[in-house]
User: Which sequence fits this backbone?
């Protein structure tokens, strides 16, 4: 590839990284569910595990940047996040090993069905939140209760079942690393719908959990040697997501939680349909 075309290619990757980083940080998803379909389109001849390695590394960069931004906003539930992140690590290792053992076409089919299914679930079960100084909604009768105080006099109180969360995150670690998406698109609805986290806390804590999940998966990919000619792509995408993640975290304070969830569902539909057409073609 001529030098000027190579340079343009990397500038395009940086621009994509900025968009993915901004949108991913906005919705607390890391952006892997958008990056993987793009990588599959841009590099039609690369094995799936090469591309999942790139995606997971970029998502790791994105979520570390997003976590830093959310930390300043005091929106991360660190205790719950560490507990759930630890549960994802065994599954993330097994997921990486599984991706390396299947064909690309099978991977694309599984990926598209997953995206469309998740989007339908989120469309059918929108979760609205009333932002008040003290945020309360339907709570389990027993479980672990958190109270998080944020700037400007806002605080959130919520109760969740830790054993349920740990069980779900054990499987999520496998699925997220297997698909190369990092899992933020799963973590946000799990925290918000299943575990009663307010959306504002769910999006921030999701970044923290996914940063740890993707770091463990990336280390396994390094051990397997999956980064075949992928370092330059990761660097270009990573530069973009570092900037975009900060922008997305800032904008998350300006957009209501319900619209964050709906925006995520809409993006999942687009990505899933595109992937399914490719898998069936």
Assistant:
């Amino acid at each position: 590839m001529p030098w000027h075309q190579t340079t343009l290619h990397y500038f395009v990757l940086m621009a994509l990284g900025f968009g993915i980083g901004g949108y991913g940080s906005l919705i607390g998803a890391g952006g892997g569910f958008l990056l993987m379909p793009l990588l599959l389109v841009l590099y039609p001849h690369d094995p799936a595990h090469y591309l999942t390695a790139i995606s997971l590394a970029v998502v790791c960069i994105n979520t570390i940047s997003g976590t830093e931004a959310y930390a300043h906003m005091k929106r991360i539930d660190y205790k719950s996040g560490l507990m759930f992140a630890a549960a994802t690590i065994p599954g993330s290792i097994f997921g990486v090993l599984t991706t390396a053992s299947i064909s690309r076409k099978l991977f694309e089919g599984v990926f598209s069905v997953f995206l469309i299914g998740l989007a339908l679930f989120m469309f059918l079960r929108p979760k609205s939140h009333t932002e008040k100084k003290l945020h309360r909604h339907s709570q389990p009768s027993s479980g672990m209760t958190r109270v998080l105080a944020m700037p400007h006099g806002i605080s959130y109180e919520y109760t969740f079942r830790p054993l349920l969360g740990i069980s779900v995150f054990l499987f999520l670690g496998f699925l997220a690393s297997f698909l190369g998406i990092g899992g933020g698109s799963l973590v946000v609805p799990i925290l918000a719908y299943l575990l009663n986290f307010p959306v504002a806390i769910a999006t921030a804590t999701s970044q923290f959990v996914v940063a740890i999940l993707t770091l463990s998966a990336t280390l396994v990919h390094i051990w397997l040697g999956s980064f075949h000619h992928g370092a330059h792509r990761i660097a270009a995408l990573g530069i973009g997501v570092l900037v975009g993640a900060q922008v997305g975290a800032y904008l998350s304070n300006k957009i209501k939680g319900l619209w964050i969830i709906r925006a995520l569902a809409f993006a999942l539909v687009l990505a899933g349909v595109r992937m399914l057409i490719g898998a069936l073609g």
User: Anything to note?
Assistant: Residues 54 and 234 are 6 Å apart (CA to CA). The first helix runs from residue 3 to 27.
